[in-house]
Amino acid sequence: MMRTGGAILLLALAASLAQAAPPPRVRVSKDGHFFVKEDGSPFSYLGDTSWSLFHLTREDVDLYLKDRAAKKFTVIQAIVAHYGGLEKPNPYGQTVFVDNDPRQPNEKYFQHVDYAVNEAESLGLYVALVPIWSKEYVTPEKSVLDKASAFSYGKFLGTRYRNKPVFWILGGDWVPDGIEDIWRSMAAGITEGDGGTHLKTYHPRGVRSSSMYFHQDAWLDFNMLQSGHSLFNRNYELIAGDYARVPAKPVIDGESAYEGIANNLEPYKPGVRLIQAEDVRRIAYCAMFAGAAGYTYGSNGAYSYLSDSRPRGAGGWGPGITFREALDRPAGKQMQYLRNLIESRPMLDRVPDQWLIVEDPMSTTERIQACRASDRSYAYVYTAMGKPVRIRLRDTVVQTVAGKVTRAYWYDPRRGTAVHIEDFTKPAAGDNERSQALTTPPSSGPGNDWVLVVEDASRNFPAPGKPIQ
Amino acid sequence: MRTIAFLVLSTCLAQAAVLPRLRISENGRYFVKEGGAPFLYLGDTDWTLLQCTRDDVDTYLADRAAKKFTVVQISVAGFDALNKMFIDGDPARPNEEYFKFLDYVVQKAESMGLYVSLATMWSNGYVNPTLNVLNNDTAFSYGKYLGTRYKNTSVIWILGGDWFATGFEDIWRRMAAGITEGDGGVHLKTYHPKSPRSSAMWFHAEKWLDFNMLQTGHTTLNRNYDLVAEDWARIPVKPVVDGEGGYEGIADGLVPELTIQTHDVRRIAYSALFAGAAGYTYGGHGVWGYRSPGTAGTPLPAAKKKAGTPVRHGPAPPWKQALQLPGASQMQYLRALIESRPMLERIPDQWLIANDPLGTTERMQACRGSDGSYAFIYTATGRKLKIRLIDGPYPKLSGKTIRAWWYDPRQGTSTATGEFEKTGFRDFTPPSSGPGNDWVLVLDDASKNFPAPGKGVVAR
Q: Is B270 among the domain residues?
């Protein structure tokens, strides 16, 4: 009796301790392309954009973070010195610096930042912190930071959030030409403060990667893209460029086309093409299948606002919509199905491989994007408009999918469900004609995107999107 | 004394006949001749040239030189050549008579200004899991024999041949070492792989591999631009040549009802070079596998290997007719275009294209001078181009005024379409559109006063 009771008590204690434990530290995987937690298990960087998080009221912070945690996002991207934030106070009347002097962080402002970071932590969410928005405050023409204040501000942040689940995003929608050393100083300051425990990157101007400026810098732990608020987004090309770089570093598509925003950021008027859920899904799946370690979603109306402007058609790039509505856009709910799919197979083995696809993989709105396991145990092929997919099962003498029997599914990115197509025996080596399988998705046309999942049947993986046991 | 003087004289003569040595450009991307002048690798393919008569060799080389090719790719070990090139088929004992004919071919090519890329031992036929005639020792000794014999000629070495190196890497390494022992490393080396692949898959970081070679696929669905982009990104930087794209007139390997048309060949060639390749190798169906005079078309190795196997590559025109396939004459316009702007400055830049660059048959492919002095944008079907001239804070092109031209890859002619002030984006509509209506938009910094596209040579 005593023993059993003790065991129960111990279990209860362990559970409460586990709850109290902060999300584990994140580091780069051995092969350099992905993220893992301290215990070596994979970490999915599935971001949501809330640049204005620290300008929300406590109530909205709670509402927002709970919503994002429920939708299975893992990272929230937020700006500390927000655009306009040097002058415009948060809902509690506080601005980020005393007298706009970056050497004097305003303790009261940072107490609200602490609040949001702590709330995120309690929900198991990481916060990717942008120390200061480059586009507004640190440009080659004009900068509120010099090397010394960049270092001291970095050290202040690093020290304050050393034991919190954070990432660091330097830059912010701009180019660092000529001011690279300011960012290097900030990186050094952060490291001085947090002991280098949290990963760092740089957020660039559109259709660019951090790798253009800092790939060889040791402080840059992973690359971040801004791939373009456009239907013609071609993040797969930017990712292929970064994937090939030496040394290998993970790459994240940290900002692409936000759901509900005007295509190409055209000034909004009725009739302007808005980015739809299907566009967002396509860009997200392309990112991951092209070799990215993560993807960051954004919803127009939720990604940005200063606290007094409701309803919010942020930046004039879309029709007015309430914050609550913006949190419930369809793709925002569907991103978790991408995460589920990736996590349902050995995800650290994933390599991009467009040569699985026999036909024209097309580009942008009709894109077909493929990846597979390096041991060829599984492959995913995304087809944005449900075009038939012909894949190479055997390429001359090389197997593209391992095993004698291949299992095939269609995975639905809109619902997160999978339909088993069939198990079939692969043709013999040398039979080139029959070594290609042509597969037609259940539906086609705009918005009818599908993922073909093919795998070695002997591995007995769970259905796509269901957790690995 | 007389003997010595004679020896010196003969050495000089031999050297005078040799074309300038080729090496890699300073930026690692391209080929240059001794002295630094840029060299465009524009190849033609006749893997079976050694099975032709002297007369046919002469005809072939004269035709290819006249069409402005710079390299011919031939195979030393042609189909069923083992017992001819080696005594008793033993790779340790090369047959002097066989190589005398190769000497003739190489010297004749040189006299016409053509370099010869020699595929040393076709791996699809002779170094693969089904049949391997080499071991590490014979690979070295045969390599050394070739290197020594062709040290003072104008050759480029192609190891492999339409096959995977997997499991045979050491044989090729030993052959490379043997060649270097023989020729002192004066001639460039690469490896010819199975399609769609690059030599980089096996040997990229190895010192002996001077440049990468692709085989990109005999199909209208050819995507060499993806393979070229992958190799462009590799470290260390090495030039990459699309050494085998889609041969003109050959059956499509992936779409059974189609044949590779002249416009497919142009598209594949322009895509290769604009994606960053240092060269492209053309092939005409009826030429690449021609073996003896009087044979109409190409006796197919696949058909020979397996009796009853249907002809995979499709019917070919007779050899002399095949030499005149239109694509062969049009490749020189690509060369002329590339040479009419600073070609060593060329970098791929798909972000010049702001609309969808599409893929395969409708591809748009863009490159520019790294200094912004010029840009080339190819559109395979004459689709409208939306060009990004200024990218945020970065101008894609230098200068305030841009001069635009349409270059016609079918004729090698250009039309000036005027000058305009550089702004963020600009639309360009080609003179015609549809399949076969391919065009190159040429944009120049007007202040550079470059010659008309395809006219004149800019020496950089």
A: yes
Q: Are residues A321 and A411 in the same domain?
A: no
A218 by DSSP, 3-state: which?
coil
CB contact under 8 A, A237 and B350: yes
Mutate which of A233, A363, A365, A436 to disrupt the B interface (most B C-beta within 10 Å)? Answer: A363
Residues B398 and B321 in one domain: no
Strands A166-174 and A200-204: parallel
B423 to chain A, minimum CA–CA distance in Å?
17
**Final residue belonging to a domain, choices A311, A343, A375:** A343
Answer yes or no: do B313 and B381 share one domain.
no
Residues B315, B319, B320: CA angle, nearest 5 degrees: 135
Q: How many domains does chain B have?
A: 2
Nearest to B79 by CA among B319, B247, B305: B305
User: Cα–chain-centroid distance for residue A398?
Assistant: 33
Q: What is the CATH number of the domain that holds B429?
A: 2.60.40
B458 is a domain residue:
no
Q: Does residue B393 lie within any of the structural domains?
A: yes
Last residue of a domain, one of A343, A376, A391: A343
Same domain, A285 and A331: yes
Closest-CA distance, A366 to chain B, in angstroms, reads 9
- List per-residue pLDDT tens for chain B, 460 residues long: 444 444 444 333 344 457 999 999 999 999 999 999 999 999 999 999 998 899 999 999 999 999 999 999 999 997 778 999 999 999 999 999 999 999 999 999 999 999 999 999 999 999 999 999 999 999 999 999 999 999 999 999 999 999 999 999 999 999 999 999 999 999 999 999 999 999 999 999 999 999 999 999 999 999 999 999 999 999 999 999 999 999 999 999 888 889 999 999 999 999 999 999 999 999 999 999 875 333 444 444 443 444 433 456 888 888 899 999 999 999 999 999 999 999 999 999 999 999 999 999 999 999 999 999 999 999 999 999 999 999 888 899 999 999 999 999 999 999 999 999 999 999 999 999 999 999 999 999 999 999 999 998 776 6
Which residue of chain A comes nearest to B255, CA vs CA? A359
CATH number, domain with residue A305: 3.20.20.80
CB contact under 8 A, A358 and B129: no
Report DSSP letters for B198-233, one per residue.
ETHHHHTT-TT--SEEEE--SSTT--HHHHHHHHHT
Give the CATH number for residue A371: 2.60.40
| pLDDT score of B297 | 44
Same domain (yes/no): B209, B358:
no
Query: What is the rounded CA–CA span in Å between residue A245 and residue A211?
Result: 9
The nearest alpha carbon in chain A to B354 belongs to A232
Does residue B394 share a domain with residue B314? no
Q: Which residues of A113-148 are buried (b: 16+ CB within 10 A; e: fewer)?
A: beebbebbbebebbbbbbbbbbebbbbeeebbbebe
Residues A250 and A383 reside in one and the same domain = no
Q: Which of B164, B358, B394 is facing A363, going by the closest CB pair? A: B358
Q: Find the domain containing B398 and state its range.
A: 344-448
Same domain, A322 and A225: yes
Cβ neighbours of A240 in B, within 8 Å: 229-230, 233
Query: Residue A422: beta bridge partners?
Result: A408
Task: Report which of B44, B125, B52 is spatially closest to residue B295, judged by C-alpha positions.
Answer: B52
A358 with B230: Cβ contact below 8 A? no
Q: Inspect the interface and report whether the beta carbons of B223 and A396 lie closer than 8 Å.
A: no
Structure tokens at B129: 């899991």
Give me the residues paired with residue A79 across strands. Answer: A130
Q: Which domain holds residue A442?
A: 347-459
Task: Name which of A359, A366, A385, A399 to mutate to probe chain B: the one with the most chain B Cβ atoms within 10 A of its Cβ.
Answer: A359
Q: In this complex, do B350 and A244 lie within 8 Å of one another by their Cβ atoms?
A: no
